Amino acid sequence: MPKINAATVAEHRAQQRAALIQAAVDVLVEQGAAAVTPAAVGARAGLARSSFYQYFPSAAALLAAIVEEAFTAADAATAQALADLREPVQRLDAFIRTELLLAARGAHRPAKALMQADLPPECLARVHELHHRHNAPLQAAIAALPGDAPELTGQLVGGTVQAAMTAVEHGADPVRVADRALALLRHGLTPQSAEQSDDHPATAQGRAVPPA
Fold first, then answer.
1. With a threshold of 0.85, does the pTM exceed it?
2. Distance between CA 15 and CA 208 in Å, rounded?
3. Domains of the chain by range and CATH?
4. Residue 85: which region, alpha, beta or left (left: phi > 0; alpha: psi -120 to 50)?
5. 108-136, pLDDT tens digit by residue?
6. What is the DSSP code string of 147-195?
7. Which DSSP string corresponds to 118-149?
8. Torsion sign, CA atoms 77, 80, 86, 87
9. How many CA atoms lie within 13 A of 57 on its CB side?
10. The CA-based dihedral angle spanning residues 136, 141, 144, 146, taken in that order and rounded to the nearest 10 degrees
11. Are 147 and 92 in contact (CB under 8 A)?
């Protein structure tokens, strides 16, 4: 039996499994899904290859576990942030701020790498299913706001959020990025801003309106 580094065997196994998943995430992000092999992951985690199979029957099973766990923490964080909020604008704000804080912690790295990886079809389908479920509160908040074309609006908001996450992942301050992104989104999502844009002479002539 391996040396126990926790109070119980169950805790030890949980730690070992978590170490393998973290090692696999690091390999996945750095080298791609094809590099996630039992030997590579075991070496990265400091465990023998034989130990790998005590927790996962194959590399595919490990990737499936990463798919599930990549969204678990993010789903929990957004659920907590939205728990006491009912107004659509408040929920949109809280969702985006939470996403950017998660991005600053690197929590989105596994999901991003998985969506870009050459995964088995069923695994990739599960990634997209979980991604859609994770973003459902954001889409619901957008649909509850005044205006038409909520699906298109959701796609445009999603693009803004992705750009904001990229900025944060490259070192930008998540609070500052959230403040700026939300200022832009609030301006575009409120009926008043649409009316002002229609009446603005520069907009009517097809010229960009300079920032205030």
1. no
2. 55
3. 7-57 (1.10.10), 60-195 (1.10.357.10)
4. beta
5. 888 778 777 777 787 788 888 999 999 99
6. SS-HHHHHHHHHHHHHHHHHHHHTT--HHHHHHHHHHHHHHHHSHHHHH
7. ---HHHHHHHHHHHHHHHHHHHHHHHTSSSS-
8. negative
9. 2
10. -130
11. no
